[in-house]
Amino acid sequence: MRYIKRDGGSPSRITGTSSIPQFAGQETVEETDTEYLAFTKAVENATRRNALIKKEFAKRITAVYPMTKQINIITDWLAGNNQEPFDAMRTFIDTLRSGSDALETSSALLSFDVLAALDITDNVHWSV
Question: Strand 2-4 and strand 13-17: pairing?
């Protein structure tokens, strides 16, 4: 596996320069430092997990409030009509956001094995 050399990093072996346009001319390294690789993998896994959490968050919103319904509610609210549907939608989304934030925060503290087994689609995580 080849990595872009980062400032302050401790690459094991420089293998050349990057051919990726946005990193052109930067040195690449073949990393054998297991601690660095574990950290890199943890960051990649957390990024993937957070993307899955955000996807579940969006799915849960649009299951109850499809985009057209959201637009209609917001349009009515902006026109000064019918405040109650807007408040209900906002409360629903805020509740889901709390669940999403809690999942993202707790997933950062979990080991990879526990994280891999975590079912983010379970309603227990979403408080709804």
Answer: unpaired
